[in-house]
Amino acid sequence: MKKNFDFSKNPAFQAMTEEKQKMTLLLADSLYHKNITEALPQIMSWKKQMEEKNISFTAEENRILTEILMAEMSPSQRKQYEALKAFMK
Fold first, then answer.
1. Cα–Cα distance measured from residue 67 to residue 74, given in angstroms and rounded to the nearest whole number
2. Least buried of 31, 37, 38, 72, by fewest C-beta within 10 Å?
3. Residue 58: which of 1, 11, 2, 4 has the closest Cα?
């Protein structure tokens, strides 16, 4: 399955534990070819799994997760996301 970008060579991804890598790949696969509306339930389910497994991510790892989320967004969705992100800081 070809993605819009390859994060597997990112040093932060490579430094993750095997379980974090698996969960990151699971997230990427579940979001592939989904718009933001379709992705939200997937993201919430994934987040719940992370909480149940008591898995947290570093700031650098979170940047990879953000890239995964944004990879399938249209330009207008990216603008909306960036506006919300700035507002929530």
1. 13
2. 37
3. 11
pLDDT in tens, 5-34: 678 888 999 999 999 999 999 998 888 888
For 39, phi then psi, to 5°, come to -75, -30
Contact in structure between 73 and 81 (CB atoms under 8 Å):
yes
Domain extent listing, the chain:
18-88
Write the DSSP assignment of 43-76 as a string of letters: HHHHHHHHHHTT----HHHHHHHHHHHHHT--HH
In this prediction, residue 5 carries a pLDDT of 62
Residue 1 has pLDDT above 70, yes or no: no
Single-letter amino acid code for the residue at 67: E
User: Can you read off the two tokens belonging to residue 33?
Assistant: 């070819």
